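Exercise: predict the fold of this chain.
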Amino acid sequence: MKNSTASHNSAGVIGGGVENSGALEISKSHVNANTAPSGGAGVISVGTVQIDHSTITDNIAQFGSGGGLAIAGIGIVTNTNITNNTAPMDGGGISTVIKLVLRRTKVIGNQAGGLGGGIFNIAFGTARLFDTKVVKNIALTDGGGIYNDGGTVELNTATGTVVIKNRPNNCVDVPGCVG
């Protein structure tokens, strides 16, 4: 998917904008204003997805998790904005189960009705953030910026990764994250 837009779509269950179960590359594209009842309203991937120089914005998971991006496989996201997505459960911006790598990415202004307004990392998942900004996300319950539910989250602050101004707090169970 290159130089494309997936906008204003709705799914019966998952993957309002894009659903992937194999290998997918998204480059210089926009995934916005999509809805899905169970999750992954913007993009859901149970395979491998690489996203570069794209936007995932204003997507809504109506009853589930992963408003913008739901990764149940391997996700590598670079130079991408994940903003203003909503999930009534967990992971307003991103919900990840297996492996997520964020580089030079912004996770801003997302909301979750449960845990992890910006990012929700499920048990056994690994999330690594390099030169990434997690800012002004909101979770109703806990982990406004990042909620780690027993997996591994690594913030590479030496590259400029920051997690700030999230509510009710920046992180839960994330080493090196303050508040």
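Check your answer against the key: The mean pLDDT is 96.
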